[in-house]
Design a protein that fits this description.
Elements (H helix, E strand, L loop, with lengths): L1 E2 L9 E8 L5 H11 L3 E5 L8 H8 L3 E4 L12 H19 L5 E3 L7 H9 L4 E3 L20 E2 L3 H10 L9 E7 L6 H14 L5 E3 L2 H11 L3 E2 L5 E3 L6 E5 L3 E5 L4 E3 L1
Parallel strand pairs: 2-3, 2-8, 2-9, 3-4, 5-6, 7-8
Antiparallel strand pairs: 1-12, 10-11, 11-14, 12-13
Helix pairs in contact: 1-6, 3-4, 5-6
This protein binds zinc ion.
Zinc ion binds next to loops.
């Protein structure tokens, strides 16, 4: 029996952060992310960007930049044509600055419905985060309705819960924390988020990833070819993959390679 629940480096847990609206405070938050070796995705509204391209590229280097629409309207209260223009123009503006395909999204004000999902998908959006906190560590069933674990203000109790599960094999793996860096107004606020980051950082059992790295890994896993006797593994993707065989053996299948066990 093959199970997909192993992540890069043979790890069993994932941590990701997600911050909306593109406030200049992102710079201080990202400095903390770099200091502690964690990663996040920053959902930007292209009409709200207040720095030049060079400054923005330096600010977000090593993190993922994703869409949050041009003007932060409510997608569930727009005609689909407006969702399309708000999404495509945001993508185009961000891609011009950052130089890579920007295909992640978080719904402005958490607003979405079937029409918004269809319109965004048609614009090339691959995943979109909601604001429905699960209080748990589930992987998304639908990447276009990717529910986070919690807002950062509620993260500390969940940190303890997450860390207490690191050695249990069969449990949900993903701790997803979201917020806005403009919510950090006082030094106490900064101390709180640093405490959250510090208690989760530097753990060899956790994969620290952006939202898109998680999406890419999950999608690549579905491309894995496995022989009927589950001994030959062929990875046609550009991403190294890991699976678990018979609940005991972790198999690494490097990008573009075939592995026989
Ligand atoms: Zn927002």
């Amino acid at each position: 029996m093959i199970q997909y629940h192993i992540y890069p480096g043979g790890k069993r847990r994932i941590l990701t952060f997600s911050y909306d609206d593109g406030n200049p405070n992102d710079e201080r938050l990202i400095a903390l992310f770099r200091q502690y070796g964690v990663k996040g995705t920053f959902h930007l509204n292209s009409s709200w960007l207040s720095a030049d391209a060079e400054t923005l590229c330096a600010r977000y280097a090593g993190q993922e930049v994703a869409c949050h629409t041009v003007h932060h309207g409510w997608p569930a209260r727009m005609p689909q044509q407006s969702v399309v223009s708000e999404t495509l123009a945001d993508r185009a503006a961000l891609e011009k600055i950052f130089g890579y395909p920007v295909q992640g999204m978080s719904y402005p004000s958490g607003s979405y419905d079937e029409g918004a999902i269809a319109a965004m998908r048609a614009c090339g959006i691959l995943y979109s985060r909601t604001t429905k906190n699960t209080g748990g560590f589930l992987l998304p069933e639908d990447f276009m309705a990717w529910h986070p674990s919690c807002h950062h203000r509620d993260a500390l109790p969940l940190c303890e819960k997450f860390l207490s599960t690191l050695d249990s094999e069969w449990t949900h793996p993903l701790f997803y924390i979201w917020g806005h860096s403009h919510e950090f107004r006082t030094e106490q606020d900064w101390q709180h988020i640093e405490k959250v980051i510090a208690c989760l950082a530097g753990n060899e059992k956790i994969w620290y990833a952006t939202n898109m790295e998680i999406y890419n890994y999950m999608v690549a896993g579905q491309q894995l070819r496995i022989s009927a006797d589950e001994r030959i593994f062929e990875n046609p993707t550009a991403i190294d993959l890991w699976v678990e065989k018979d609940k005991k053996e972790i198999i690494h299948i490097p990008a573009g390679e075939r592995v026989t066990v």
